[in-house]
From TrEMBL:
Membrane-crossing residue ranges in chain numbering: none
Top-level enzyme category: isomerase
GO biological process: one example: pentose-phosphate shunt, non-oxidative branch
Family annotation (HAMAP family): Rib_5P_isom_A
Top-rank lineage group of the source organism: Eukaryota
Name of protein: Ribose-5-phosphate isomerase
Gene Ontology CC annotations of this record: cytosol
Keyword NADP: no
Alphabetical list of CDD domains matching this protein: RPI_A
Length: 235
């Protein structure tokens, strides 16, 4: 059921937002796998000219395995569209990302795109952060600074901050950039834009998993087999 919902959202985004001669940002995570498969199918069937920019090692491998054209931001610093998943989406289309540890490169690529499109299944849809996603907000940090940052986060914003530990390796998770990840489990709702800026001002913080005012449209694959489309609210 969930995989089918992911597939529906991914296919809708690829069908609606990808045209020939596009430079396309390819996100990371399980939903993106379906998007890349659909993209490869369209490229082959319609003979599309598409250049793909990855957001992670996983995305790079997906692009290559599916026979798509791989490039980078040095050669293509401006993208037409970036398509990515999310761990949680609130009613303002703000996102929590970084459950898979790729938040920094994902945010860089999204920031280079004219439009940023999000694909997710129904479990990721919330009114407010924390309703569905219980693992906190990921924060990528320089390794030498993780202890002081952990203390500052808790002192300033409350909640609990944990160093993310690896599963099949002794010690912490190390990102594609060679950094550590903290997961900040907040205990109340905040003004997320202000919090995002404040966290980024702490020395040693590389990036946060808060994606505020970036997503233009979100496609949710629903349990009943439909796709629910949400546009960024106009305030």
């Amino acid at each position: 059921m969930t995989e089918e919902a992911k597939k529906l959202a991914a296919w809708a985004a690829i069908n609606n937002h990808v045209q020939t001669n596009h430079v396309l940002g390819i996100g990371s995570g399980s939903t993106i796998v379906h998007a890349v498969h659909k993209l490869a199918e369209r490229v082959k069937k319609e003979n599309l000219n598409i250049v793909c920019i990855p957001t992670s090692f996983q995305a790079r491998q997906l692009i290559l395995q599916n026979g798509l054209t791989l490039s980078d931001l040095d050669r293509h610093p401006e993208l037409n569209v970036a398509i990515d998943g999310a761990d949680e989406v609130d009613s303002d289309l703000s996102l929590i990302k970084g459950g898979g540890g790729c938040l920094t490169q994902e945010k860089i690529v999204a920031g280079c795109a004219k439009s940023f499109i999000v694909i997710a299944d129904y479990r990721k849809k919330s009114k407010d952060f924390g309703e569905q996603w219980k693992k906190g907000i990921p924060i990528e940090v320089i390794p030498m600074a993780y202890v002081p940052i952990t203390k500052r986060l808790t002192n300033i914003f409350g909640g609990v901050t944990e160093l993310r530990m690896a599963v099949n390796k002794a010690g912490p998770v190390v990102t594609d950039n060679g950094n550590f990840l903290l997961d900040w489990k907040f205990d109340k709702l905040h003004n997320w834009n202000e919090v995002n800026i404040a966290i980024k001002m702490i020395p040693g913080v590389v990036e946060t998993g808060l994606f505020i005012n970036i997503a233009e449209r979100v496609y949710f694959g629903m349990e009943d087999g439909s796709v629910s489309v949400h546009e960024k609210p106009v305030h």
